[in-house]
């Protein structure tokens, strides 16, 4: 029996239920008791790591001492498909990643700035003075429309609207129950018990999304247009080292990945940012002053470099990161870590949440303090909201840019107030995190500089 670090002794079933219902509370309790490294039994032993040096060791030795376990990312398969860059591992993952990278190159992002501002203004135009609205719903509408425009091009079509509606049904907050999470972790529970059963509803919405995406791909194949520069057009034209393009099925799964991962996480980040900015008057005051000093909001190069706006976005993604964990790695050759010898086959998870809560890195970690990011630089192993190593999020530049443009557009045009008075905490939302209850805001007046 191999000795694993700081193994939690409660029965396995209790650990799994705790993990599904309250993962952040569970990780914090374990970190308090065991420190930087501990083992939970989640159907099999999994070692959690939150030490920056250990994370550096894992993320810089990717593919040498560690690799992605081929069967671990299957929890994402029902939503994203077998061919998603998120569910694939090894050589297949590397190939898909290389095909997906060009549209998300940093310089290309600025092309989307105008779309981000325009879509934000469209959604803002629906807000009425003194009438509360759900921040999450509004941010989800913005982020989904932005990624739809970026992926399919600047056009409005019946199919694009249908895809939007179907994705909203797939990601419906009301369907996001512990039962759904259990079904993701335990495939045996994935039973279609009719159109109104949770899994049955999910399967029908997914089939509709697949059909709509397939129709779009087919139409593009039949009527190619070399002048189009949207992400789907770029992906259809891309070929791997052997000159092979993506198949229709690969394209469909990557589109599901881009559309879902590309808006859901950004919407959550924006929701938290708006909450914190309006919860803490001193943060709003500083940020508002910085934005008011900008003569042209469409000067995206300057906007991207605003120090306090950047610090607010960074602190938002630090305090409650949307992704709690890095992608899992499995030990390939014996390694030493945090004073333990780990054998081949050991599964490791980097805890982004615990790393971001470290008192030695972030004094008073439960407080929202953007100034941390003005006072010092953090390494990619101390601050890693988008993961790290060979599986770092492809859309990092896109998401950071979008957060800044959307926040700047809203704050430069409207004065908002927080209607929800109680403190908002993070909770599990499917495989990621989000606010534990709806956050409501209201427009007080147009913003006067």
The strand order across the widest sheet is 1-2-8-5-3
Stretches where pLDDT is under 50 for at least 5 consecutive residues are none
Largest sheet: 5 strands, mixed
What is the number of beta strands? 12
User: Helix content range of the residues, please?
Assistant: 40-55%
Question: What does the secondary structure layout of this molecule look like, with pairings?
Answer:
Elements: H1 12-21, H2 23-34, E1 37-41, E2 45-49, H3 52-60, E3 66-67, H4 77-80, H5 90-100, H6 113-124, E4 133-134, H7 135-152, H8 158-170, H9 178-185, H10 198-222, H11 231-237, H12 248-279, H13 281-292, H14 300-305, H15 307-319, E5 329-331, E6 335-337, E7 340-342, E8 347-350, H16 352-356, H17 372-375, H18 396-413, E9 414-418, E10 426-429, E11 432-435, E12 440-446
Parallel strand pairs: 2-8
Antiparallel strand pairs: 1-2, 3-5, 4-12, 5-8, 6-7, 9-12, 10-11
Helix pairs in contact: 6-7, 6-18, 7-12, 8-10, 10-12, 12-13, 12-15, 12-18
Structure summarized in a few sentences:
The chain is α+β, with helices and mostly antiparallel strands and 449 residues long. The chain has helices spanning 12-21, 23-34, 52-60, 77-80, 90-100, 113-124, 135-152, 158-170, 178-185, 198-222, 231-237, 248-279, 281-292, 300-305, 307-319, 352-356, 372-375, 396-413, and strands at 37-41, 45-49, 66-67, 133-134, 329-331, 335-337, 340-342, 347-350, 414-418, 426-429, 432-435, 440-446.
